[in-house]
Amino acid sequence: MESYLESKMPEMNSLLKELVNIDSGSYYKEGVDKVGNIIRRKFEELGMYVKVHRETEYGNHLEIKCDKECEPKIIIIAHMDTVFGVGEAEKRPFKIIGDKAYGPGVSDEKASHVAVLYALKALKENGSDAYKNVHLIFNSDEEIGSRTSKAIIKEAAEGKDFSLVVESGRPNDAVVTERKGVGRFIFDVKGRSAHAGVEPERGRSAIVELAHKVISLQNLNDYEQGLSVNVGLIDGGISSNTVAPEAKAQVDVRVKNMKQAKEITAKITEIAHDEHIKGTETEISGRIGRPPMEKVEGAETLLNTIKAVGKELGMSITEVSTGGGSDAAYTTTEGVPTVDGMGPLGEFSHSEKDEYVDLKSFPKRTALLAKTIERLSSHLH
Question: What PANTHER family does the entry give (predicted)?
């Protein structure tokens, strides 16, 4: 299987180049759909059934199975959107330097699109029916919280035995077994304006009120327990000689588990309602939007299977946890054993110049994905 994939590297690199050179930011429906149309065509050429979930605002989502009626037990999730705007692909198109490929979205996660396709091709070429046990979701809005695809993923996860999410693999052949949950809260403070030189005592400064809250929010951080709270954006006031009548803050929150999520939401709400400057009012909006990816029953068995397959391929698979969120959260909350980071090795996602995928890892990590599908297929309920 590995030698087959090695022989297909020119094809794989060619497809990767085609995908990377298409702008497909989350808000650019036309570009995401271009990527989706290529993926749809490739899987239909493989003889698979592709259902298109049409969207009006964001790109369409793809749901792919061996045929319309089959009921596979392994779900694989990939996302077609990137964080980059229109024109980025033209500004820095796909290029290969040494053993690394560069370009917008090359690692996050267009190399994974190619890997999934060729993993199934390899299984089919090898005479294995394991490709029939796969239910693929290619969604278009992962980078903005899977707003319209979350329900599709959750529905597809029902009754599944295993979930493989193909965000990029990590250095040292690592896969991801835990991810933090992600939340966003907005504080909107209303005060009362006054002339700062003539009658400042009549004013109620929304900025000063917000300043008290910012300190309280930052004091919630507990990095050792995996909790981070970051006031990353503030705005307020109308001029330097006016007591500020309004101020706003945007807060990013990362949590390790759902217990933490509930506790921190309560504390943030309490801080919002605490009044330091009499006569100000604070509205709070937002929530923990993407739950954490936690290890569920069966996750350790899944990881051990991947490690065993890796060992047969001469790889020493390790596991890591990370602060970034992904769609893996939506399968773990459904109780499905999940491992993320099953794509080719890459680093510096979202970077404007450093993001790369390690081409040396491409055939081997694709073989790891294919053989894991094959091994798991022998353990299905």
Answer: ACETYLORNITHINE DEACETYLASE (PTHR43808), BLL0789 PROTEIN (PTHR43808:SF9)
